[in-house]
Design brief:
heterodimer; A: 396 residues; alpha/beta; D-Maltodextrin-Binding Protein, domain 2; 2 domains; seven-stranded mixed beta sheet; four-stranded mixed beta sheet; 17 helices; 45% helix; globular; B: 533 residues; alpha+beta; Elongation Factor Tu (Ef-tu), domain 3; Thrombin, subunit H; six-stranded antiparallel beta barrel; 50% helix; extended
């Protein structure tokens, strides 16, 4: 009986002690995780508060937060979370608004896209850390120069598409919408329009407009007319072909650069050139940042840690060690001499952050279906298919 | 023989029917569990009065103590109940893992529970209050409350009203953890933290407050490095009030109770309350039945029947071949043929997905090497269905083969000798002798295999993800979607995911369908069994 009582009291005291630790959920691995561990160690030394880092795969972060945070089992911070999940998390009431913690100086130092990406319903719900998005990787061993114009891009792609090599690859068997949006947007389509205040309007869907139809036609031409991308190309096929050196150009994001560097590929990153010298083609951009759990019992210390991690010095070291492109303008100016980062910064300068409203989650499945139908049949009625998809997105 | 005793003393005693004791013991066990639950909750509430941060699992400890005590008391009163205590773990697990999920699913199927209606507080709906008058308040913009997402608008929805503030001041002196400020904060305000600009580090950080005395503020931890004394904010505890919105009229909300005079509340935000919507979920499902439920159900039945028939046919064929004593290296063949069963299906199915890739997969490359026609295995709807059946055949035939081998070894060889004497061919041997005797062993296997294949989620999800889209279908019900994967898509991928109400309704529909099919199955199997006798 006495032992049982002792055990109970110990458990009680332990759980009270643990309440003072800040818990972080992260999907970082490798160098970025090292960076996070270093920075939190410095924070612990300066502020005297313990930090616990827990790895959660990126696909599970949102479900985890939605289910566990309201019952007090969620982390204090998520470092980082992709911004397109922001709306769903904020609407479910699990995110703390960061308006009161963000100073004007900090907000002025952010790129407009990253600030928009983390703003929902007019409030700032997270602190942006870094941006990512697909750009054109060019294998300089196969393509010594260019492409400097869109026509040159197509010409080089067709020239290098032989029985054993590919001129240009982009995933079409899966993730077709995420990567293909580059063309949908470039020809005039959009996902959600913005109203006068700059907020996204979920009723204004631009995926069946004339521009979107032209973009979808181009995606179809990539397969059937130019024969650049055969069926069955998903992300791993594209990644593998570039790693083997059999793909001249691919459309991929900064997360793949360390693999290509390790394989010794001589590559350069640049934006996809626009038609007739117009603005380059750029599609979706993702911004990852730090969010705080509304149900956290340790908010004051958690905010201190969040601000510690996004200060300019930390951002510069993240870019240097983790290869991430910072959202802070002053940090990106300090590292502008890295060619890969400069290439991505140029490609993402005009990119559109993925809409962060919860209605965006309804867009992915119907658009994937629509694009797979358009790609399967060269005589498909693209306008009708896109109209069907938009109807499904609206929920009728 | 002692004739003074009645005859019944020498006759066997009639045992009281055991079912009487079963219900009594079940009742007593459930009573004990009920008392233990109440005791656990009461103990937890008691602990929370003294230490609100205590973890909730202490309630479990109290519950266990009360349960053991109650069980001991019952055992002393009814001695016959001791052997029945073995039911207790089974009852506990049944209640926790079967009764509760079923009850919850049935309840949620009649609600619109989803991510945006999850009964949690929604701070994104915070709207400024322009003026308030008793129980009526006027907000700046009613659209910020986003009432359109909820079933009956904002009527009957819980809301929270805020009164908060931040007080800007400057420090006269700062030593260690003691801060003296001028102007001093209002006397009866609760300051929870102080925001200080850290000059060396370059961030504005917050520091929790231990206590406040007039113009002297004591922090819990000293800040690292130098601090800007001219720019200090004192953060007040954000006071909030819970109310329920009764009605909405333009920008005016009527609450269920009037607001107090002090302090003045400046903003309101609502909860994401979900409501019971009756049969609306079922109506939604049946409305798109022709595009979704119908084709998916048809494919599901087709898939389950064809795959069972195919698996059994191939399994029996291989078993008959392996059973032949004249075949050499039988053990080697049997070992090799068991391999698909031995490897973990989760991995092999994904391996098949790679092999079946139309341009880069090994199967099409080998076919092209021999100038044979290649197929778009996973891209064409009919080919994808064929691919699913073939992969399931590869995964399942070892089990059928082994079961058939076992049943074959039970057939006496005299029957075959008799058939040989009668001049039967191998074909007649099989249909006349082997098949009828195998039937009794394989019918239960066929039934269970049908039931398992009917809900074979992992195969569909890993191989095709629901399969290629076809014109006329929806994005959640595609060419190889079965009922359960369609339910998964509807619940977790459409509508922004987390459409648990709709997913629960689909689950109930699947249960009803599966029950109906099982009843039909059992009746058919029962009829067959009667014939044999």
């Amino acid at each position: 009986m006495k032992n049982l009582l002792l055990a109970l009291i110990t458990a009680l005291l332990l759980s009270l002690a643990l309440a003072q630790t800040i818990t972080i959920h992260t999907h970082f691995q490798d160098e970025s995780l090292n960076w996070l561990q270093q920075e939190t160690a410095r924070f612990e030394a300066a502020f005297g508060v313990d930090v616990e880092i827990v790895f959660v795969p990126v696909g599970a972060i949102v479900q985890n937060m939605l289910l566990n945070a309201p019952v007090g089992q969620g982390p204090d911070l998520i470092v980082p979370v992709p911004h397109d999940q922001l709306g769903a998390l904020a609407e479910a009431g699990v995110l703390a608004s960061m308006d009161q913690y963000a100073t004007a100086v900090y907000l002025g130092d952010l790129t407009a896209q990253s600030r928009l990406a983390f703003t929902f319903a007019g409030r700032l719900f997270g602190l942006p850390m870094y941006v990512e998005g697909p750009a054109l990787y060019v294998n300089r061993d196969l393509v010594p120069e260019g492409p400097n114009s869109f026509d040159e891009f197509l010409a080089i792609a067709r020239e290098h598409t032989t029985a054993h090599t590919f001129g240009f690859l982009q995933p079409q068997a899966s993730d077709a919408f995420y990567f293909g949006y580059v063309w949908l947007r470039g020809f005039g389509g959009y996902v959600f329009g913005r109203d006068a205040d700059g907020n996204l309007n979920p009723n204004d869907i631009g995926l069946s407009t004339e521009g979107a139809v032209r973009g979808a036609e181009f995606i179809q031409r990539l397969r059937h007319e130019y024969s650049l991308i055969p069926s069955g190309v998903d992300y791993s096929v594209m990644h593998g072909q570039f790693l083997n050196g059999t793909a001249a150009m691919i459309n991929n994001g900064p997360w793949a650069a360390p693999d290509y560097l390790a394989a010794g590929i001589n590559f350069e990153v640049m934006p996809i050139p626009g038609i007739d010298g117009g603005s380059p083609f750029s599609g979706f951009m993702g911004v990852q940042g730090i969010v705080m759990n509304e149900f956290s019992t340790n908010k004051v210390n958690a905010v201190n840690l969040a601000k510690w991690l996004i200060r300019t010095d930390a951002q510069v070291s993240l870019a240097t060690f983790g290869g991430r492109i910072p959202a802070s303008i002053s940090a990106s100016q300090r590292i502008s001499d890295d060619p890969i980062i400069a290439g991505f910064a140029a490609a993402l300068a005009d990119a559109e952050p993925m809409p962060n409203i919860p209605e965006m989650a309804r867009v992915w499945a119907p658009m994937e279906t629509a694009l797979s139908l358009i790609l399967a049949d060269p005589y498909a009625d693209i306008g009708a298919i896109l109209n069907d998809a938009v109807r499904e997105i609206r929920g009728n | 023989m002692d004739l003074s005793r009645p005859a019944s003393d020498f006759l066997p005693r009639t045992i009281k029917h055991p079912t009487v004791k079963l219900w009594a013991s079940l009742g007593l066990l459930l009573l004990a569990l009920g008392v233990a639950t109440v005791g656990g909750l009461a103990g937890l509430w008691f602990v929370w009065q003294f230490s609100p941060a205590a973890p909730a699992f202490l309630g479990l400890a109290f519950g266990v103590i009360v349960l053991v005590t109650v069980l001991a008391v019952i055992a002393r009163r009814y001695q016959w109940i001791m052997p029945w205590y073995y039911l207790l773990p089974a009852i506990l697990f049944l209640l926790t893992f079967t009764v509760m999920p079923i009850g919850l699913t049935v309840y949620l199927a009649f609600t619109d529970y989803a991510g945006a209606r999850n009964n949690q507080f929604n701070p994104t709906t915070e709207t400024a209050i322009v003026s308030s008058d008793g129980a009526q308040i006027e907000v700046a913009d009613i659209r910020s409350l986003k009432c359109a997402v909820l079933h009956r608008g904002c009527e009957g929805v819980r809301a929270r009203l805020y009164a908060s503030g931040e007080f800007a001041t400057q420090a006269i002196s700062f030593a260690g953890t003691t801060l003296i400020v001028d102007p001093a904060p209002p006397p009866d305000s609760t300051i929870t933290s102080v925001r200080l600009e850290l000059i060396d580090i370059g961030i504005r950080a917050g520091f929790p407050v231990a206590f406040v005395e007039g113009d002297r503020i004591e922090l819990i931890n000293a800040p690292p490095g130098a601090v800007d004394l001219s720019d200090i904010s004192l953060v007040f505890a954000r006071v909030h009030l819970e109310r329920r919105i009764l009605s909405v009229d333009g920008n005016v909300l009527t609450l269920d109770a009037p607001l107090p005079e002090e302090p003045s509340y400046t903003s309101i935000a609502r909860y994401n309350d979900f409501s019971v919507i009756g049969l609306a979920n079922f109506r939604t499902i049946l409305a798109q039945a022709s595009r979704a439920l119908g084709p998916v159900f048809a494919w599901n039945i087709t898939f389950a029947s064809v795959t069972v028939a195919l698996n059994i046919a191939v399994g029996v064929l291989l078993a008959v071949l392996l059973n032949d004593p004249r075949l050499r290296f039988r053990n080697l063949y049997r070992t090799l043929l068991i391999i698909p069963w031995a490897l973990p299906a989760i991995i092999t199915i994904q391996m098949w997905q790679g092999l079946l890739n139309s341009n880069f997969g090994a199967i099409n490359r080998v076919l092209a090497l021999f100038d044979l026609p290649v197929f778009d295995w996973l891209g064409d709807p009919m080919m994808a269905r064929g691919a699913v059946l073939l992969v399931n055949l590869w995964l399942s035939f070892p089990f059928m083969m082994t079961a058939a081998l076992g049943a074959l070894s039970a057939i006496p060889s005299e029957l075959y000798e008799a058939a040989e004497i009668d001049g039967a061919s191998a074909w007649q041997n099989f249909w006349g002798v082997t098949a009828p005797l195998l039937r009794s062993a394989l019918v239960p296997i066929a039934l269970t295999s049908f039931a398992l294949s009917f809900n074979n989620f992992s195969l569909i999800f890993l191989l095709t993800g629901g399969g290629p889209a076809y014109p006329g279908g929806t994005s959640t019900a595609r060419a190889t979607d079965i009922l359960i994967s369609w339910a998964y898509n509807e619940a977790f991928q459409s509508q922004g995911g987390f459409a648990y109400g709709l997913g629960s309704a689909i689950s109930i529909l699947i249960f009803v369908i599966t029950l109906a099919i099982s009843l039909v199955n059992f009746r058919v199997a029962g009829a067959l069994k009667d014939d044999q006798r």
